[in-house]
């Protein structure tokens, strides 16, 4: 019941109600996968590095995903693999988002030769074959999860910079921004209170949709042997090392590959959900 003359409050979960059923499922799945990644060491029934049973056991109640060629529990290794793929992917997105937003914010707000110079710098990274150069960087630095994250993050910020600059330039010409300038608001307060909030929805949607792409990129590097060194249970590496067993011990390459697919699907559905939730904001 509403009081006359007073607007009704929007439901607290109105943003969730704007999503389709598949988008809601993606958001829930993404939350669960993030929880699994954070709690992975406490969720593994066996030590993922030790032999706990006979090799090549098929999935069973004792070993939900079976055992690998050494006798290690595949379910435990996949749980840790989710952690080694998901959390680095989120870290890369946050790093790229932070760097790109800062560059776009400065370029859009300051303008002039600084804007032109930052645009040329951003375009340089956009036209480069980022995947090939990232592979070269990892090959030069040596295989390892940290080197892979550095190489991918190095080329993941330009799109955010371009989006942030476009949004900042658009909002800077709006009446409320002009009024703030006339009122004497300038510097960081103008940037972060009046300009940056307008760019947040577009940046957030782009970042959530990018998570699946980062997961695929990290899995590719792992598949090629450029991720964390063995015996780290990375999903891509587990798929690559057992793909020759596909016709005999199908669960060894199929299960890690399916988990990568689920990670990417959940991320894309959640990204669509965020876009739907922010529609009209």
Description:
The chain is mostly helical and 281 residues long. It has one domain (68-277): MetI-like (MetI-like fold), CATH 1.10.3720.10. The chain contains 11 helices and no strands. Helix 2 (21-43) packs across helix 11, helix 4 (112-127) packs antiparallel against helix 7 (158-172) and helix 9 packs parallel to helix 10 (235-242). The protein is elongated and about 75 Å long. Mean pLDDT is 83; it is low at 1-8.
Query: Per DSSP, what share of the residues sits in E-state strands of 2 or more residues?
Result: under 5%
Low-confidence stretches: 1-8
CATH architecture term: Orthogonal Bundle
Say what the CATH topology is: MetI-like fold
First-residue to last-residue Cα separation: 25 Å
Instruction: Sketch the topology as an H/E string, one letter per element.
Output: HHHHHHHHHHH
Class by SSE composition: mainly alpha
- The domain tally reads 1
Radius of gyration: 23 Å
CATH superfamily: MetI-like
Shape descriptor reads elongated
- What profile does the largest beta sheet have? none
Number of strands: 0
Distinct helical segment count: 11
The portion of residues assigned to helices is: 55-70%
The CATH class name reads Mainly Alpha
Mean pLDDT, as a whole number? 83
């Amino acid at each position: 019941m509403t009081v006359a003359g007073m607007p009704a409050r929007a439901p607290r979960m109105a943003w969730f109600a704007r999503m389709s059923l598949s988008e809601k499922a993606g958001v829930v799945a993404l939350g669960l996968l993030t929880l699994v990644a954070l709690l992975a060491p406490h969720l593994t029934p066996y030590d993922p590095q030790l032999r706990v049973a006979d090799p090549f056991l098929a999935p069973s109640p004792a070993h939900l995903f079976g055992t690998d060629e050494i006798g290690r529990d595949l379910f435990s290794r996949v749980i840790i693999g989710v952690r080694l793929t998901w959390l680095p992917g989120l870290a890369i997105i946050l790093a790229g988002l932070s760097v790109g937003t800062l560059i776009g914010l400065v370029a859009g707000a300051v303008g002039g030769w600084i804007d032109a110079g930052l645009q040329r710098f951003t375009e340089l990274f956009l036209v480069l074959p980022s995947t090939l150069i990232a592979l070269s960087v990892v090959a030069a630095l040596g295989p390892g999860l940290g080197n892979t994250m550095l190489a991918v993050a190095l080329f993941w910020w330009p799109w955010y910079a371009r989006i942030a600059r476009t949004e900042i330039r658009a909002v800077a010409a709006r009446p409320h921004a002009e009024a703030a300038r006339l009122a004497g608001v300038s510097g960081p307060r103008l940037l972060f209170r009046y300009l940056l909030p307008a760019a947040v929805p577009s940046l957030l949607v782009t970042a959530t949709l990018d998570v699946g792409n980062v997961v695929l990129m990290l899995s590719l590097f792992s598949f090629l042997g450029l991720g964390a060194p063995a015996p780290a249970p990375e999903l891509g590496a587990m798929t690559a090392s057992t793909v020759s067993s596909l016709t005999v011990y199908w669960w060894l390459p199929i299960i890690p590959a399916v988990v990568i697919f689920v990670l990417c699907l959940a991320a894309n559905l959640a990204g669509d959900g965020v876009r739907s939730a922010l529609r009209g904001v």
